[in-house]
Amino acid sequence: MSKPQEPHRPFFHFGNPFRAISPKGSKLSSRLVFLLATFEDSLAQKLTKLTPKSDNDVFSFLWMGLAMKLLCEIHNDVKTLIGDLELPVSDWGEKWLDEYLDISVKLLDICNDFSSDLSQLNQGHLILRCALHNLASTSSNQFVPARCSLDAWNQHISSRTSRVENRSPIMDHLEELLDLPKVKNSPKGKVLMQVMYGVKVATLFICSVFAYAFSGSSKRLLSIHVPDTYRWAQAFTELQKNVNMGIKINHSSGRFTALRVLDAVDERVKKLHSMIQENIDGGMKVEECQNLIVDLRSEAEKLTQGVDHLTKQVDEFFHVVLSGRDALLSNLRSSETVFGQGMEGLSTRQP
């Protein structure tokens, strides 16, 4: 971003926009260049904002919520740009339409999978609440049901399966759709396809990171190379490098899960379970146990708040994708109706 103390900086601060973004063999009007440059600069700023400041940020619910929020903004930006392009749906190539509708329905499926994984985490919190309720009593009789609840937590978490991992072909298919469809004799179409490439890269990358966070499987991780001709390429490369570094550290640390708060909760559950067993055997340190209960309650609350916030962000993204899909289908139906009426009127005037 340009700084106030740097006057006379050109508006397009990434260099000559015509050389940088005009597809080979095509001529874009100054208006189309401006629209494309504005979108790509905005995308670069969003990707920069998402770049984690430290390794601990990558799989925090705060970072994941920001990632989903920015994804909503990027998809809303696309809807705005499509309107600014004034490109009628009737001018969209059949391949463009098929690809857009295919991608949108798969993104809706992925949102449902993310929501299912988050719902499993909420179920685990209900088990924790039961254990903490029992532990709130000073009576030693409550330790046995509390231990049972902690056993139930361990069983629930260890048996947790990610729907994203089970539906991996969806992610594979989205990766295949990164290639740009060919566009001929349509400057607006070329701009649209270049914009859609940026959207697909950002969406696929964020979804792959979420899939890793929920499943713990590195099979869904991607390494996407973006040509430096795109104005947002450097910001994306930096984001991908920092996130991958966080993933590498997560693997080497031997954490139970990629989700940091969930890992913190699980660590305290195991310690508390061991202390309760000591109490039953007659050797627990009461004060140490009480401190751990307070600590677990705090981490469990963070887990609940994080899951609730991220669930809302995933729901919002679902509705953004759905509204964009519905708007396109509505415009397509309107175009077909107008075209049909025009042809009907033409036929009545035929001799």
TrEMBL record:
- The membrane-spanning stretches of this chain are none
- Coiled coil ranges (UniProt) are 286-313
Q: Could you give a single Gene Ontology term from the biological process aspect?
A: shoot system development
Question: One Pfam family this chain carries?
Answer: BPS1
User: Keywords for this entry?
Assistant: Coiled coil
Q: Which domain of life is it from?
A: Eukaryota
Manganese found in the keyword field: no
Q: What is this protein called?
A: Protein BPS1, chloroplastic-like
